[in-house]
Structures are given as C-alpha cells and as structure tokens.
Amino acid sequence: MSKPLHHLIRKVIHPTVPGLLLPELILFNRRGEGTTYEPLVDFTVSRSAMSITSHLKPVRVMGFLWDALVENQGKPGRDARKIGRRRFLENFVTNLARGTIVWNDGELRDDTGLYWRPPSPDVLNGFACGFDAFVNYMSDPEDRPESDPFTEMCDGLFDLKILMSSSGRPVKGLGLLAHLKKNERTPTQPGLLDNVVEKSGRRSYLEAPTKEFSRVLLPTFLTEDFRTYSGRGIDASGRCFARLLCLGVRSSEALLMWEDDIKIRNGKVEVFLRHPGKFRDRSRGNRTREEVLLEDYDMLPRTKMADKCKVGWKDPALKVSLSNRLSWLDGTEEGAFLVIADYILNVRNPIMQARRAKGLRDHPYLLVTTRSGKDFMAGDPWTDAASISSFKRAVKRMAKRLPDEGIEYGKYHGTTRHAFRHSYGQDAEESGLDDKSIMRKMNHKSIFSSRVYRNKSEEDVHRQFEEANARRRSTTEPQIRSTIPSAPMSESLDDFYRTIMGARWR
C-alpha cells in the first residue's frame, strides 16, 4: 500500500486498561484538523486478547477508507454522497486490490490521488476481514455513535460488507444481501472481492492447526543440519539462532537480542527477553536501549529502522523491569550452552574485532552476518531475510538426510521458525503446567493466545484416541467396562426396537 494521506495511526497505552497497547486512528479533514476515531478504539478494546498485528488490520483499512472518502469528496463519479454507498465501496475494494496507479499514454498516472500499490492476497484478505469485523461491531445500535464521520460522508456505509459467509449470506443479516430473504433457492452470492481477485489468488482455508516442529527430529536437526553440504563449514549464526528458538521466543525476539542478554555461568546459559527500546540497563548508566543505541552506536533500535535490518516487535508481556528470564525447551539447555558459548567466543567476537579495526560501526546485537557481500559487511546485524534463508537450507538438508520422512518446508508441515514456538507450547502443556503458567512461560498477555500454540495435530488426536480405547479394553473395572450386550447383534437390535416402539413393533 502507500503512506496515509488524511489519517495517522499511532500506538498508545489504553488509559483504563493498564498495559494494553492498541493502535489509535486519527482522522484529518482537508483543513488539517484531526480527531481520534473512538468507535475503533472501543472495538479494539473489545478484542484485547488478540495480538497487535490483528488489531492493526481494521485500523489500517479504515484509515485507507477515510483517505478515499476525503480524496474523492466533490469529484464527479467518485464522491460517495453522489454515487451511493454500494458503488463507492465497490470502487474502494477494486482500488484496494489492484492499486490506483495505471499506465496510460506512455506514462504512469493516478487520477484518484491515492497512489495505492496493490497489496499481497493475504494482506488484502486481512483488510477485508478487519473491515467486516468492525461492521459487525457497529451493527449494534449501542456501539454506533449518533454522529460518525464515515457515515456523514457516506450514509449507510456500515450496512455493507466486503466478504460473505460460506453460505453466501452476510453474517448477522447485514451486507449486500440484506434485502434477500433466507431461502434455500437463493443462489450463492459472491462477495465484493470475488469480482476483483481471481480464484487462484484467494487464500484457502486449512482446517489443520499449525504443526509443531517434530520433537523427535529436533535433536539431530540442531546438531546436524546447520552444516554445509560439504560437511566442512557450519552456518554459525543459523545454528545459534535455532538454539535461541528453543526458548519459545518468536524469531523477531531472537534477532533483537543483545550480547548482554546472554549470561553464561557455571556451565549454564541464561537468556533474557528485554524490550528493544525501553529496557534500562544499570551497567550502561541506567539508560534505555534506545538511548544507548543513539548515543554509543549512532543507530536506531531495529524496530524503528526502515531498511533490511528492520525487525518487528509483537509487544510480549514483560515484567515491570521490561526483562523476562526465559526457560529452555526440555532437553535443549546443555547443547545450547556449548553452541552459544562457541558462537560468542569464536565467531562473533573475532568478527566484531576485525570490524572495529577497519573503522566500521559497532553494535550490541548478538547475531551477526559472518561474511561480506555486495551490499553487506561481516558483522552487520543478522537480518530477518537471512534467518529465513538459513532455516530453509537447514530443512532442505534434513529432508535430504531423511528422504523417507517426506519432509517439506512450510507452516502446515511444522518446519518453519515459528514451529519451534508451537513445540514449546506443546511441551509446556504436557509437563502439566496450568493455563496461567503456560501464558507466563510464553510471554503472552492472555491465556487464549497460549491455547493456539497447544492445538493438537490430527496425528496426536488419533493417537490419544487409540490409547484411550486400549486402556478401556484392558480395564477390569465394572463401572467403565463396555456396555455392549454379548447377545448376537440381530437379537440386540430386536430388543431395542421393541423397547422404544412398544405395540407398534412388527
């Protein structure tokens, strides 16, 4: 997409819900006067258990909708007041999906003034779902204010939806089919996106939950598959990164770790998750990390960078000190000590010493690039793209090493970086921890967030069902013994029908 024209999105702490970070949409008119859009704030609070990424989807799409309303105001054929809500929303969805910049007469033009680029299918689907969820919320008269800036510019805008339910009828009776009665003969109606996005570009729904990384394959994956194909070299940063994922952290949280976050003592390694900008370090004059980066290294936190070094931050639940001590996935701590200690002493330190000797900028981030290239230098902070490529190569090596396992790289194959976090959640549940303990262990703010990581795979559900049946068959206790009669099946069925049918049985 493009930069906002007439809106601003900022992240704020909710005044009455301590610790709740939410996105706030500020709408500007053509005179530059801005006001916070309160209904969207209330909607976000009502879904506070969701992640900040989920909160941003409806906020972003409503911001772009406001840009379209303001920019097209007064333009013939585009003003929502004149062309009607349905046509305006159809135009909005088309521009959102395909972009507004076109090639005409040998030059790029944009008659709308919006300058939107087409987003990916997943982002577009997220926008549509976010808009429809907000429309559902606004369908309650108590939640809809008497005066709304959107409906003032396009009356009845919140009576329409972008997506449709699987049956073709709008959820809660709203949307583009509100005038149709529920009738089995009513043909399935497409949503607005169906006219814009080809079937091949739509996101398919997968019933199976995201799989965990196989804990059977994990030990050899960590020790064997970060070696190069020749067997002579080691992907040192990739191997250390994979070990950090055994702490149950997100990939971005591992990339944001400083060398100071690692404490090696008495043959053990302690790792801390700390806020990338606000954590105060007593050993550095009680300055925040952002202050340390600006004053000592002349750089911004990676969360605020705009280049390839940028890394996201999902705002996990941290203590008041903004520092949490992390726990290892069962059975991985001993190997992690050897790998991380070797990485710091024999990989990172020599690279950074050589870097400083050349007069290049120093930095405190743990994971570094181990070689120089066309547009990067050895010692640069390891990027998110590099971590993905490293992990994919390791999975390919594992697939080559174990050809009979049918291993593929993918989210629903349980072989991505995030699959480690699902393994961590499964292990925490199997260890007998309660919901709140698992929530804290995974640095979540809600127990509902943690439950997503504990969904059983189809294979696990089948195995547990078979084990339960085996226990039931082997038990000798009368209260749970099978109640199926020992008489022949035909006689049992006859007796059953006589019982329920009485005199009508023939």
Automatic annotation (TrEMBL):
InterPro entries: DNA_brk_join_enz, Integrase-like_cat_sf. Residues 476-485 have a biased composition (Polar residues). One of its GO terms (molecular function) is DNA binding. One of its GO terms (biological process) is DNA integration. Keywords: DNA recombination. Gene3D superfamilies: Intergrase catalytic core. The keyword Zinc does not apply. Residues 458-487 are annotated as: Disordered. This is Tyrosine-type recombinase/integrase. It comes from the Bacteria. Residues 458-470 have a biased composition (Basic and acidic residues).
